[in-house]
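Backbone shape codes:
===
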Amino acid sequence: MYPLQNLHTFAFPAYAADFHLVGSLAELQESWHSSVNQSYYILGEGSNTVFLEDFDGCILKMAIKGIELQETDEEFILKVGAGENWHQLVEWCLAKGINGFENLALIPGTVGAAPIQNIGAYGVEVEQFIDSIEYLCLVSGTIKHIRRAECQFAYRDSIFKRALAGQFIIGSVTFSLSKHWLANASYAELRELAEPSARDIFDKVVQVRQRKLPDPKKLGNAGSFFKNPIIDKALFVQLRQRYPHIPSYPVNTEQVKVPAAWLIDTLGFKGHKIGGVMCHAQQPLVLTNDGTGSGSELVALAKKIKHAVQQSFFIELENEVQLVSNAGLVHI
């Protein structure tokens, strides 16, 4: 049995039946073939994963490293190993004068996880920089490539969560970043910046994220637990009649995005606890573990919040965090 408590940021005590550290595509293929007859879970840095209990299968922890840089007259092209730390990549790029990732600073996790979730923050999503993705096809056992146009990217979504779910393991991601950089400072606190440089945006994003989000090294958590729901405008109009100050962000002509934190806060869940698991007192979108919590307590609190939001707003929240039980993913 392999201990998992220090491999996921929620830090519940848990064990895996088997564990492989994967450092290359060749090791990835070998590890996959050796674990093909048992359940498995692909783990990066555990910042978007919660092990609710012991896992009966094999954990494949991604540690494929390396950054390969090429240039054209117009672009920087980066091929990055799936096991590289995302924030460290952002810092590396800034040090090299490669701009574009700065709005995505301090997002936890690995490069390989970034396209699956289509990570985003402060008006930017990673999809706009992705050129192609190299992955192990679990059906054929061969290495394949997929271009950005085929990835079906959407808000916190991609083909890897849908048609390719359970059929892939990402080995590397190739990014294209334009040399004709334009600042994106139109979102939230970034509007305070006047003619910012990429470093200015990076510093501001880091400052805001550190102020708003609890450090998982000090208080177990996995960041934003729920996705911000996207709802029809007709429902939003009805809700605005009851809640005139409900915030929203346009998605398209028919839909708007509503902050899940506002929904949860409006229902008074800040500071609400079940055992050792709590809805954070400053940021209600974050659920935390004080060191004594359990997976069952987390699920109970998440279900309670989800039910209350459904009853009050007719909106179904969807968890952003991957919840892993002894047999695989759990959906609340």
